[in-house]
Write a structure and sequence with these properties.
CATH architecture of the largest domain: Orthogonal Bundle
Distance between the termini: 56 Å
Radius of gyration: 30 Å
CATH class of the largest domain: Mainly Alpha
Strand content: 15-25%
Helix content: 40-55%
CATH topology of the largest domain: Hypothetical protein af1432
Number of strands: 21
Shape: globular
Structural class: alpha+beta
Number of domains: 6
CATH superfamily of the largest domain: Hypothetical protein af1432
Largest sheet: 6 strands, mixed
Length: 724
Amino acid sequence: MRYTESVMGKKTDIRALIDETQEYLPSETLALIEDAYEFVSQALEADKANELYLEHALRTAITVAELQLDENCIAAALLHELPEQCGVTLTNIEKRFGTEVAKLVEGLVKLGKVSWPEEVKPKKSAIDIETQAESLRKMLMAMAEDIRVVFIKLADRLHNMRTLRGVPPSKRRTIAQETMAIYAPVAHRLGIWQIKWQLEDLAFRYLEPKNYRNIVHLVAARREERERYIAQVVKILKDEMEKARIEAEVTGRSKHIYSINRKMERYTSLGKEFSEIYDLLGFRILVNEVPDCYSALGVVHSLWHPIPGEFNDYIVNPRGGVYKALHTTVMYMGNTPLEIQIRTREMHRVAEYGIAAHWRYKEGAKGDEEFEEKLGVLRQLLDWYKDVGGAEFVESIRADIFGDRVLVYTPKGDIKDLPTGSTPLDFAYRVHTDLGHRCIGAKVNRRMVPLSYQLSNGDTVEILTAKGDKGPSRDWLNPALGYIKTSHAKEKVRQWFRRQEREENIQRGKELLEKELRRLGISLSEEELADLFKRESVDDFLAAIGYGDISTHQIATKLAVQQEKPLALLEAAPRQPRVSSAVQVMGVGDLLTHLAPCCSPVPGDEIIGYVTRTKGISVHRKDCPNIANMDERERLIKVEWERTDQLYSVPVHIEAWDRVGLLRDISAIVAEEKVNIAAVSTADHDNQTISIFLTLETKGIRELSRLLSKLEGVRGVLSVARHT
C-alpha cells in the first residue's frame, strides 16, 4: 500500500514505541526492538519515498505494543515491509534477528499477498467467491500456525485504514470491502474489540460515505445534550458506588458509528426516528474484583428497575469463551433504557484486546490451554476444508469461525460453544463423534424436539441414542432439511459414509443423482456432471454423492453458476435497452423474448431460442420435446441467462397420501422459503392418494432444488417433481 505525506500527520519516532513497550517488557528486550528500528531505517534510507513506510512500520509496531505482545512481534511489525519494499531476504532477517522473527515476517508476507477483486459486486461471480475463499484460507492458516501473525496483520491493516484517504479512489472501496468482510470479523472472533470497532468505522466511512456523514452530523448535533446526560448518569452512579464502599471507575460514551448505523436500520424498520433512539449511549463500571461486579450490579438495580430479559452474566458464561462482564439494561428515570456493563479491570483489558490480552509466547512455555484448544479447532477446520472450494467454503467458515455463537449445556452442566443456528445433531457431534452417529432423538430443556431444532443460549441438551450400532442418515447432509449447521458435524457424517463399501456408495450416489435430475426435470449425462465437478471418473463422482461429499443441492447450485459464467464475457459489449425476460440473445443483440410455457425454463436450465414469426424469440429448455421435434432447425438461436431478480413460473407435481392438513403443511413450507404459489389444483385417486399441481414463482434452480427437498419431507408426500 502506497502512503502519501498528506495523510500521515505528525511523524512518530522510536521514543513513542519504547515508551509503550517499557510499561510491560523487561529492559533487556528493548535492544532487539531498537536494533530492528535501526535496520529498517538503514534499509529505507536509500529511497526518500520510502520514509513513509518507516512511519507505517512504527505505527503498526505501536499498536502491537498496545496489545502487549512480545519483543519478537514488535520487531516483526517493524520489519514486515522490507521483503516487498526493499528486497531484504528472509534469510538476512533470520541471520540478524533469529528464526522466530523471520517466521513472523514470512507469515506477514504470505498474508500480504492475499488479493481481492477490484470491484465487489452485489452478486459475486464464481471468481470473486474463489478469491474470497483463498483469502480466508490464508488467514486461517496464519491463525493456526502462529496466531501472533494475525495480531500483527490486524495492527498493519488498522494503520492502512487510517491512511486510506491517501490511496487512489479506485482502490479505496476494494480495501474497505476486504476490511469489513475479513479483517473486522477476525478481530471480533479473537475478541480484539479495540481494533474491531475502529476497522468497522473506517471501512463504513468509505463503503457508505453518505450514511457515515449523516450519522456523524446527527451525533454532533446532539453533542451538548448527550454530554449533559452522560455527566448526570455518571455522577449518580459514582455517588452510589461510594456510599456502598465499592471502588469503581464509571464512564459513559456514545456507541461507535457503524454500531449506530446498524441500530438505526433496525429502528427505521420499526418506524422510529433518530431522536427516539435512547440506547446509543453505553455506560461502563470498572471494579477491582469479581465479587465487586455483583455488588455493583445490586447497586444499579436498586437505583433503577431492570428490564426483564435484558440481563446477561458473561462472567459465568463467557461470550465466545473469552469475553467476561455483566450486562444489564435498566429504565432510567422511569422511561429511558440505559445499558450498563460491569467488569473488573482485567476483564476490561481482555474485552478491549481479546485473546491478545492474556496470550504470551514465553520461552519454553506452551501458553493458555483454552487458547491451544481453539488453535486445535482451527487446524481441524483447515483439514476439513482442504477439498472444499468456493461458496460452500466461504459460507461454512463464516458460520463456524466468524459467526455469532450460542452457549448451551450438557445434562452435567458443561458448556458447549456452537455457531448460531446449530442443532441437537451439531451438539452431539461436538460432544463425541459416536454420540452423533447413534443419535435418534433429542431433548432440549427436558422437552422432545426435532433434530432440526435451532438451539438458543442457555439451552440444556440431552441426546437420545440407539442401543446398538447405528450410522447417520444421508438426509442429515441435505442443507435444505436443516439437520446440521456446522462443518465439523458434516465432515464426521461424510467420514462415516466414506468408510462404507465403494460399490454401495456408487449405487446410492447414482440413485440420488437420478432422483434429483428427474425432480428438477434436467437432462444431463453423468459424464458431463463429473466433468463439471472435476472428478476423474463417473464412479468417483457418484461415490462422492453416495458418501455425502457432494450434495444434490450443490449439483443444483453448480448448474446455476455454470449458466452465469458466460455473462462475464458479455458485460463489456454495448447494449440496447433491456427487456424484462432476463435472457441475452447471443450474436444478434437484444430482441423481444418470452419463456415458452410448454417447458417453463428457469435459470440453471440449459436453454435455446426459437425465432417465431410474430412474437420474437421463444426460449425453451434444450430438452423440450417441441425443440427436439422441430423441423426448421435454422430458426434456433443461442441464448443465455442474464443475472436478474425476476421470478419464473415453474409447474410442480406432488404425489401424496391424502390426509387432513396436507395442503396446509405444503403451503407453510413454500411460505417459509418466501416463494409464491401462483396456482394450485388437485386430483383425488381411488387408492387414497392425491395429486397436487402447484405453479411456483421461483428465482431459479437453486431455490427450486431447496424447496423440493423440503416438500419431500412433508408427512405423507410420496414424490415431488417438476411437472413437464
